[in-house]
Sequence to fold (95 residues):
Amino acid sequence: MNSVRGSNTKEIYEALLTDGERKIFIFSTGSNKNGDDKRSMPALGYKLMENGELLCELQYYGGGILGMNKNIICIYKDLDAKFKLILAAAATANL
Fold:
């Protein structure tokens, strides 16, 4: 997985999940995306998207000196159960 950071960088995907037909892109994200997080160490994570739709987010670092609230996964409830399991496995592998 690659990492591109900065306030003026274009959002590009860092990794891709595919079964040959569907493509789920993984983007890096964090609490300082807009440059307004005053902590010296912002929260960090990834978001998984398909066709511009957010499916899942995960936070691997909670930000701040102690970095609490890490290893959190949020999967959107409007997805079918089998697909949620696939996303959970992918998100867990990224942690």
